[in-house]
Amino acid sequence: ETGVTQSPTHLIKTRGQQVTLRCSSQSGHNTVSWYQQALGQGPQFIFQYYREEENGRGNFPPRFSGLQFPNYSSELNVNALELDDSALYLCASSLDSGSSEQYFGPGTRLTVT
Amino acid sequence: DAKTTQPNSMESNEEEPVHLPCNHSTISGTDYIHWYRQLPSQGPEYVIHGLTSNVNNRMASLAIAEDRKSSTLILHRATLRDAAVYYCILRDPNSGGSNYKLTFGKGTLLTVNP
User: Fold this and answer.
1) Is B30:B94 a contact under the CB 8 Å cutoff?
2) Chain B from 41 to 80: CB within 8 A of any A CB
């Protein structure tokens, strides 16, 4: 158990809709990162938040956005869903942005139809 | 980011040692070698990391070649619970810019036979 939780576990949305995924980090962890994992692939970095500010971004369009809150919770928002957005979305918390260990949650499985 | 190369899959028997190789011929002097694993239906889990010297922890050992162009993750006695995808990742914590992210490849799928 990593102490990182995500909700919901599974979600089905329709193309064009918007979705919000939630993550609760370990207490005291100032950094949260989000990853997208397509079937059969390794996780791909979306972005990272450090103390409520975006701290870096991978190769994802602006319709992927996030928020981090002072209570160690965070959100990933995806607008205008596309079929290719179907994936497992993982959040990972760490003490700070340079930490060697990232603690992953179990993920949210998003299906876009 | 420097790339890593791992076998797609490996097989082991329960209670035997497992040596998972990783090649990283373009590693820079400040890249740390990280290993994560992902059990079925779970998020990735940190296993171990090192820079130059061999490292041991309660989960595994990491053997790093003298020229650092390759490394091996060693599970001393495989159990059924060790069946997972193992990812070898290079990360420079001081490079700035993208230093924060983990760049995953496809990893090695380890099957453990009873």
Assistant:
1) yes
2) 41-46, 49
**Phi, psi for A99 (deg, rounded to 5):** -60, 145
- Which residues in B lie closer than 8 A to residue A7 (C-beta atoms)? none
Please give the pLDDT value at position B98.
46
Amino acid identity, position A91: C
First to last CA, chain A: 32
Digit-coded pLDDT (tens) for B78-90: 999 999 999 999 9
Residue in B closest to A95 by C-alpha: B100
Query: How is residue A7 written in tokens?
Result: 């909700």
Interface subset of A 34-93, CB within 8 angstroms of B: 35, 40-45, 48, 50, 55-56, 58, 90, 92
How far apart are the CA of B10 and the nearest CA of chain A, in angstroms? 16
Question: Measuring CA to CA, how many Å separate A103 from each of A45, A67, B10, B76?
Answer: 14, 18, 25, 24
**Which of B1, B74, B71 is CA-nearest to residue B34?**
B71
pLDDT in tens, A71-82: 889 999 999 999
Low-confidence ranges of chain A (pLDDT < 50): none
Please give the Cα distance from B57 to B61 (Å, whole number). Answer: 6
Q: Which of B32, B43, B100 sits opposite A90 (nearest CB)?
A: B43
